[in-house]
Design goal:
Elements (H helix, E strand, L loop, with lengths): L1 E5 L9 H14 L4 E5 L9 E5 L5 H10 L5 E4 L2 H10 L1 H10 L2 E4 L16 E3 L17 E6 L10 H6 L8 E6 L5 H13 L3 E3 L5 H10 L2 E4 L8 H8 L4 E4 L2 H7 L6 E2 L4 H13 L1 H14 L5 H14 L12
Helix pairs in contact: 2-4, 3-4, 10-11
């Protein structure tokens, strides 16, 4: 069948929305769907519209539903949809949810944060990552990776501020990979890196390099204030890298409510304590690694492909078996 996949992120973007759209397109093509990825809807016919982002793709959602009132429409909810635009732009966001035949949430707690009348059409699709072999850690530093663009939702400088609070003998260094959302954010990161020897900002890097840094790091820090289900967590699970994360719904919905590696969002003291405990207590770090290893099967690419195709079927489309990978 013909599927039009709408994402607000351009083909040149290295952000999460584009990565998700391109990965989903590959998954769906394995089921012999014909998938086209676009940033806007121009009135073309399609058997199904799959829109990533309820608010940013609202015009496409409304236009497709008006032209094809009986054709399936699936909307994937991002973190800003759930935790920002439902409040700041409630009418537009609610209209997109109402028009959808099926909704996709990227973590297991999304149902708690959307209106009750839409929960019966919500499906959880955990973002996947290909397995990555562990690499030799740096010897000079206890390296913690931070994979996040510089924008407010990610609270990206919090780990650097927390690292300033560590005792003098700590070997922790934050390696931050991610682009500056604005020049002001980029300048703030450069200034912090210049003043803080425990923080190194490397800017936006190719995905292969990101995976290498993640695979050699002693841990991943996810300090976000809001997340719809961060793909970088899936990348860490696939790389056997333990995670410490802010205790927000988007992280709890991936790692579980009782995961021991949480800190209160925006709290540098608590984050510093958690990072320091990882460094000085090998048993604690290994316990986090063990918990993450138990979650790794949930982010296998074939599982994401299967659940995504099941959503397409639930929306009213006929689907067939997957072709073998490759």
């Amino acid at each position: 069948m013909d599927i039009l996949l709408i994402t607000p992120a351009s083909a040149q973007s290295k952000g999460g929305n584009r990565a998700t759209a391109d990965r989903w397109a590959r998954h769906l093509r394995r089921y012999d769907h014909r998938v086209r990825v676009a940033t806007a809807y121009e009135g073309e016919a399609s058997d199904l519209l799959l829109a990533l982002h309820a608010w940013r793709s609202a015009e496409a959602i409304a236009a497709f539903r008006e032209r094809f009132p009986d054709r399936p429409l699936v909307v994937a909810l991002t973190g800003t949809d759930i935790y920002r635009f439902q409040e700041s732009h409630p009418e537009t966001t609610e209209a997109s949810l109402a028009k959808a035949d099926a909704l996709i949430g990227l973590h297991a707690r999304v149902a708690e944060d959307i209106p009750a009348q839409h929960r019966n059409k919500l499906h959880t699709v955990l973002q996947s990552a290909a397995p990555a072999a562990r690499r030799t850690p740096l010897k000079r530093h206890f390296e913690l990776a931070l994979i996040a663009n510089l924008r407010p939702e990610k609270d990206p400088l919090r780990p650097a501020l927390a690292a300033r609070l560590l005792p003098e003998g700590s070997r922790i260094r934050i390696t931050h990979l991610g682009g500056g959302h604005t020049e002001e954010w980029a300048e703030a990161a450069r200034a912090e890196a210049g003043a803080n020897p425990r923080y190194r900002w490397q800017g936006e890097r190719p995905h292969d390099e990101v995976r290498k840094v993640l695979a050699r790091s002693q841990g991943l820090v996810v300090p976000s204030l809001m997340e719809g289900g961060a793909n970088v967590v899936s990348e860490a699970l696939a790389a056997d890298t333990p995670v410490i994360a802010s205790a927000i719904p988007g992280n709890r919905g991936l790692l579980g409510d009782d995961y021991p590696g949480y800190f209160p969002p925006g709290d540098p003291e608590a984050l510093a304590e958690l990072m320091g405990r990882m460094e000085r207590d090998p048993g604690f770090a290994e316990g986090l690694r063990h918990r993450c290893a138990g979650l790794a099967p949930l982010v296998r690419p074939e599982r994401e492909a299967e659940t995504l195709n099941a959503v397409i079927a639930a929306a009213g489309c006929q689907v067939g078996p997957a072709r073998p990978p490759g």
